[in-house]
Amino acid sequence: MTMSLRHIKGQNCLRIRFFSNPLSPHLSGASFRNSFIRFSFTQISKISRHLAMSAKDHTLQSDIAKMKAEPDGSFKRRDSSFRNLIEKGGKYEPEKDRYHLFVSYACPWATRTLIVRKLKGLDDLIPVSVVSPHMGSDGWPFASADKYPGATDDPLYGSQHVKDLYFKADPGYDGRFTVPVLWDKKTHAVVNNESSEIIRIFNTAFNDFIPDDKKVLDFYPNDLRPKIDELNDFIYPGINNGVYRTGFATTQEAYSKAVKEVFESLDKVEKILEGNEYLLGDKLTEADIRLWVTIIRFDPVYVGHFKCNIKTIRDGYPNIDKWARKLYWTNSAFKDSTNFDHIKTHYYWSHTSINPTRIVPVGPEPNIRPL
Ligand SMILES: N[C@@H](CCC(=O)N[C@@H](CS)C(=O)NCC(=O)O)C(=O)O
């Protein structure tokens, strides 16, 4: 049975047609009946908006192959749309069994949130769902749509794709369907889809529910904020987003400019890490976490796929390499949040404009060297 709705001009009613033969509804005159139901104008405009949305081509939002570069060939990332906080007295209160995190192991931004979630011991408070690395024309699929080892289903609504969650939260959503997504089960809403803000939420919002040894961990402490901000201010454009600007550039000029900026920023970080355990001396901060997720992907993916190949981390940056390996091998929050198979498969399979054959390279071996 299918149904069609038509607003009858000048009247606040919709004609609803029920068809028993969806393949040839107009031929099967005898099998449908008309019904008239009275709606308010608000309801009519809501329904019409919903119908218009469902008829729209969403692949422009979900298919990375259809993504357009700027006129000069450079890549510009869109700002995230949902920017709420979780705070006492706010719309989203810190509560047990209320929030859910949707991630991809492939995505560096999502991995930031996984690392802080682990470091702060929020595993039981904030359950996680993991998408398949095959980000195709409908965006990120859950295991229900693509059974990939390590991928899971959406336990809340049984969504097939991450885009279904965005439309559940906002039927008129017109942005990209990105991960991570911090979801509120109580109001069926996206709380926040910006990783840099989700990690700050995880850093403090749930402190009342976790043991003291986790509560005291602060990755954005007051006294270090200006220094952390200063680091983030060049590491984000130069490195985190710099590798994307390099890889998604569509002109030689845009590429050459972006790749130069990546390596200048890496040179700067290499100097900062000289004789230091972490970026700010002996204290692990969010600046390390934000940088690390890009560095761990650098040799396995960005050198080849995004053409960031002036040097590798392992052979060209001894201080960064040592810092990255130490975090991976000695802190399980970093290692457990890293899945090299998802990482490599995602980039090489999903970005067909860069790698049309979808062949996933075997090397480098190993993905990360031992300590
Ligand atoms: N600003 C966002 C960026 C998130 C983002 O771009 N995620 C990528 C995966 S690495 C994504 O989901 N892309 C899907 C798309 O653009 O269609 C954040 O930091 O959370």
From TrEMBL:
Entry's transmembrane regions: none
Matching PROSITE patterns: GST_CTER
GST C-terminal domain sequence ranges: 221-347
SUPFAM superfamilies: GST C-terminal domain-like, Thioredoxin-like
Active site: 107, 244
A GO molecular-function descriptor: glutathione transferase activity
Pfam families: GST_C_2, GST_N_2
Sites where the protein binds glutathione: 140, 176-179, 194-195
InterPro entries in alphabetical order: Glutathione-S-Trfase_C-like, Glutathione-S-Trfase_C_sf, Glutathione_S-Trfase, Glutathione_S-Trfase_N, GST_Omega-like_C, GST_Omega/GSH, Thioredoxin-like_sf
Site (Lowers pKa of active site Cys): 302, 347
GO CC annotation terms, alphabetical: cytoplasm
Name of the molecule in the record: Glutathione S-transferase
Source species of the chain: Crepidotus variabilis
